[in-house]
Specification:
There is one protein chain. By secondary structure, the protein is mainly β. The protein has one helix spanning 70-76; strands at 11-14, 24-25, 40-42, 48-50, 56-59, 65-68. The strands form 2 sheets. The protein has a 3-stranded antiparallel beta sheet with strand order 1-5-6. The longest helix is centred in the last third of the chain and has 7 residues, at 70-76.
Length: 87
């Protein structure tokens, strides 16, 4: 069976060092997989995922954040308009 992903609109912002992006935590967090002060996002499952410079931070439909590499972002998403306040 072939299926198609439903088209949905999400918010995203590209993170670079020194830029404040909602969802990105740059301080030490005492959680599973803690990143010891390295930039990361907290997942809805309670883990942290490291964020690299240039990663896109996407807010999912449930409000949780996840990083997406620029390569995967360009294959998966289409930018609908510029908005520095996204996410």
């Amino acid at each position: 069976m072939k299926v198609r992903r439903r088209p949905i609109i999400l918010e995203a912002a590209q993170w670079v060092p020194g830029r404040s992006v909602p969802g990105v935590c740059a301080k030490y967090c005492n959680i599973i997989g803690g990143n010891y002060g390295l930039p990361h996002v907290h997942t809805k499952t309670g883990l942290s995922i490291r964020v690299a410079s240039g990663d896109w931070i996407v807010r999912d439909l449930d409000g949780s954040f996840f990083p997406c590499s620029p390569q995967m972002f360009s294959k998966t998403y289409e930018i609908l308009g510029e908005n520095d306040d996204a996410v």
